[in-house]
Amino acid sequence: MPNGQWYPPEWPARIRALDSGELTAVTPRRAATVMLLRDDPSEPGAVGPCVHMLRRRTSMAFAGGAYAYPGGGVDPRDDDHLVGWAGPSLETWAGRLGVATPAEAQAVVCAAVRETYEEAGVLLAGPSADTVVSDTTGADWEADREALVARDLSFAGFLDRRGLVLRSDLLAAWARWITPAFEPRRYDTWFFVAVLPEGQRTRNVSTEADRTVWIRPGDAADGYDRGELLMMPPTVATLRALRPYGTASKALEAADSQSLVPVLAEARMEGDELVLSWPGHDEFTKHVPAAGGSTAPAADDGTDGSPA
């Protein structure tokens, strides 16, 4: 039975076009996505937390119908405006994320927290370094969330206006994947893990999703293996990595031991086959007949903000 790996049929043509020089690789955009975890309140004592996932609308140009985590591109406006900050220093975050400056680190972490708020209604921020907003469901909060989605408001500006401190101690970096060079929409994406703050709840507020679920990572990975849930390789790999942890807090604690070496797909010719692989993740390797045209597909219009 085939699994649920997302594999666009145009990829072989794009790979051949890149190899022949007909296609030029675009520069990846910085992005962030968050694996939001909670221990299942309906099953006290159950082993393993649940992760919040959304299913991308089938009409989406990128990974339509695939299950993913809340996420999206970095807003450059969050690089150059210092925000209220709690948790590890920006210098510590820059070292962990592998970026050159504290400002870049702030922008990546801001993207993770902003996208979790935009797409799940969960805000990892509070009025002080040891508090978290307890309710974001009011009309005024919703107006701000919609302004963030529309990019009428930067996340740094939102935090300032609300007098909030970003709780960087509530999330941790888990992995880093870069979209293959032959894709028209490319992202350099940091995957974070976070625990749902007490008192907050997720909402299906993403304009890009038609369904959201809380599901145990192992169950989601099993659904992918059976071909029932469509996913991209980074999603499956991170689900498998979360599977061993018995609680949400233990997964968060384990984040520092995870490698942030970027994973980038490689394409090569082996005889009459084109081989597509992700280093360190053999399960995603694809063998594709090399026959066929190499006309470069149309250029990306840049409208999709997906992170991976």
From TrEMBL:
PANTHER family found in the cross-reference section: ACYL-COENZYME A DIPHOSPHATASE NUDT19, TESTOSTERONE-REGULATED PROTEIN RP2
Annotated protein name in UniProt: NUDIX hydrolase
InterPro entries in UniProt: NUDIX_hydrolase-like_dom_sf (IPR015797), NUDIX_hydrolase_dom (IPR000086), NUDT19 (IPR039121)
CDD domains in UniProt: NUDIX_AcylCoAdiphos_Nudt19
Spans through the membrane: none
Cofactor: Mn(2+); Mg(2+)
Record keywords, A-Z: Hydrolase, Magnesium, Manganese, Metal-binding
Top-level lineage group: Bacteria
Cited SUPFAM superfamilies: Nudix
Domain (Nudix hydrolase): residue spans on this chain: 28-237
One GO MF term: metal ion binding
Species this chain originates from: Streptomyces pratensis (strain ATCC 33331 / IAF-45CD)
Residue ranges of the region described as Disordered: 286-308
